[in-house]
Amino acid sequence: MNQVRSITAADFSSDCPVPFERVVRLTRAEPDALFDLLDGIPEATRARLAVWLYGRSHTHEIGVRIAATCDGTTLHQAAGLVGDRLHELSRRPRTASSYGVHAGGTRRQVSLGGSHVAAHAFV
Questions:
Q1: Whole-angstrom Cα distance, residue 77 to residue 80?
Q2: Residue 121: its pLDDT value, please?
Q3: Could you tell me which residues come within 8 angstroms of residue 77 by beta carbon, excluding any fewer than 6 positions away?
Q4: Which residues contact 59 (CB under 8 A, 6 or more apart)?
Q5: Which of 3, 13, 48, 58 sits 20 to 30 Å CA-CA off 113?
Q6: Which residue ranges make up each domain of the chain?
Q7: Which one, of 56, 33, 52, 35, lies nearest residue 44 by Cα?
Q8: Is the pTM of this model over 0.70?
Q9: Per residue in 32-79, pLDDT tens?
């Protein structure tokens, strides 16, 4: 029989190179405040953090931003070919995220109320 167990912060922070609380602050920070939060973190640790964040879909973008504070050699030492790719990505001009945007270039409208037809189907 499989047992279900709760996921805790410790599950995510076991291989994270900085304390989990700092990761939370970094992911919630405005882009302008990110560099202040990185102050005092050695470059090798920032490189490992960038790789760690890049490897998670919800923190992918911040991983690229942190990688931009590291040189290519340090990123390569942290993650080999992945570090090389991350260095390359971090040097490209940033583009706006396409999440939630459809082909027309406008944001998708989200409705939690359901369709008008479905609302009257039960009357």
A1: 6
A2: 53
A3: 44, 47, 83
A4: 23, 27, 53
A5: 58
A6: 9-94
A7: 52
A8: no
A9: 899 999 999 999 999 999 999 999 988 999 999 999 999 999 999 999
